[in-house]
Amino acid sequence: MTGNNIKVISGSAHPDLARDICKHLGIELCRSSLLRFSNENMLVQIEENVREADVFVIQPSCPPVSDGIVELLITIDALKHASAGRITAVLPYFPYARSDKKDRPRISITARLMADLLETAGANRVLTMDLHSPQVQGFFRIPADQLLATPIICDYLRENRDLSRYVLVAGDVGESKDVGAYANRLNLPMAIVDKRRDGDDEKARATNLIGDVEGKVALIIDDEIATGGTMIEATRFVLDSGATAVEAACVHPVLSGKAVDRIDSSPLRSLVVTDTLPLPPEKRIDKIEVLSVAPLFAEAIKAIHDGSSISRLFR
Prior knowledge:
Elements: E1 6-10, H1 15-25, E2 32-36, E3 42-46, E4 54-58, H2 65-81, E5 86-91, H3 110-121, E6 125-129, E7 144-147, H4 150-160, E8 166-170, H5 176-186, E9 190-196, E10 205-210, E11 217-225, H6 229-240, E12 245-253, H7 259-265, E13 270-274, E14 288-291, H8 294-306
Parallel strand pairs: 1-4, 4-5, 5-6, 6-7, 8-9, 8-11, 11-12, 12-13, 13-14
Antiparallel strand pairs: 2-3, 9-10
């Protein structure tokens, strides 16, 4: 791959991931700059010729979320007016992915709004990873490819764990289908935590366990961890149900608020995550193992650029 017609631009959200992707592609990051004015407006300038180039803009959703979204939209618009040949928005972690349905009166289906904004700004394609729910992919009227971290996490677990006494655990019924994909790949049994709500209390409580964890190492799988409260509650519940130890794996380490402190002081033995989101040094505690998604995104970018199949990457 010569890289003559391909450009990769990093937003300010996760430049380390963008650099790693470029390393796997064998190209340099396209030069760009971001200027923040005193009135909190932004100016994005593309500092290279991108006329007729195939451009990929890498910007996952992370704090400050709203600033990151606006920066991405401005970058796409700048590329459109610089006559880029094709613009692909690469969002390893998609913004507002959980706002995917109208489950209360007079609210926005914000994930759909994000899809509309990307298209309006000038994106021709979207590349993302492990959306919270599959219907979000259908919100786009432009081509949208969703990569899965399942092969990366499963390969790592196979190579670094003796899985003979493991059982996979879904934190709730809604996660069971995704956990089933891991169970099929690893040829492991699975269990599901049954959660219920009491009266008007919005907090879901673990009440039953569907499946057997007694005498086994329970591995809880989720697509993301935010505050860590649900994960730690599930950890204690499966330990009380007879598991000898509990580990966890998730794709998107949001880890907001005091999540890292909670995980560090919890009975959870380890947590495997990917680098779809930046994880600063203060959050890289001994319990957390970080896997790179850069090789997979690089292969997907190659496939989009060359017009070859992306589905082969799902193995």
